[in-house]
Amino acid sequence: MALTMRKELDSVSQKVTKIQAENGTEGFSKCFTIQSDFIAFKGHFPDYPILPGIVQILMAEMTISEAMQADYAIQEVKQAKFLKPIEPDHDISVKVFCAKENTWDCEIHTDFEDVAARFRLHCELIK
Fold first, then answer.
1. pLDDT in tens, 11-35
2. What pLDDT score does 6 carry?
3. 51: exposed, middle or buried (C-beta count within 10 Å: 0-12, 13-18, 19+)?
4. How would you write the chain as a 3-class SS string?
5. What are phi and psi of 9, to 5 degrees?
6. Is the pLDDT of residue 1 over 60?
7. pTM score, whole prediction
8. Omega before 41 cis (within 30°)?
9. Fewer CB in a 10 Å sphere around the end CB: N or C, the chain?
10. Count of structural domains, the chain
């Protein structure tokens, strides 16, 4: 299932770009456009589809891996706050900033403005 999800996310995403936070911290951003037929909406929830939190976390991990040009695996998720449900047919921007070695502060934005989620990922390089 995870491989299928990755392939689907790859097909609806753009390339990673370098960004700078208001405080001057450099980071990376990746944009996704997820339509209502996206696999993760099936069953989550049938009458009110929202993007599962685990998919948002996977999007951040994919952004980190592409930005660093290496494969990373999530070891730990901390301080996760899902602030706003993400419904189908919205543009999603994933922003990641390196907090310290292998630790990333992540934000998920809908329509490139509203913060839908914030969390910290600890990732390890897959050798």
1. 999 999 999 988 888 999 999 999 9
2. 87
3. buried
4. CHHHHHHHHHHCECCCEEEECCCCCEEEEEEEEECCCCHHHCCCCCCCCCCCHHHHHHHHHHHHHHHHCCCEEEEEEEEEEECCCCCCCEEEEEEEEEEECCEEEEEEEECCCEEEEEEEEEEEECC
5. -65, -40
6. no
7. 0.93
8. no
9. C
10. 1
Rounded to 5 degrees, what are φ and ψ at 78?
A: -130, 155
- Domain range for residue 69? 2-125
Angle at 121 between CA 120 and CA 122, to 5 degrees: 125
CATH number at residue 81: 3.10.129.10
pLDDT of residue 103: 97
Contact assessment for residue 6 and residue 74, using Cβ atoms and an 8 Å cutoff = no
- Judge whether 69 and 61 are in contact, CB under 8 Å: no
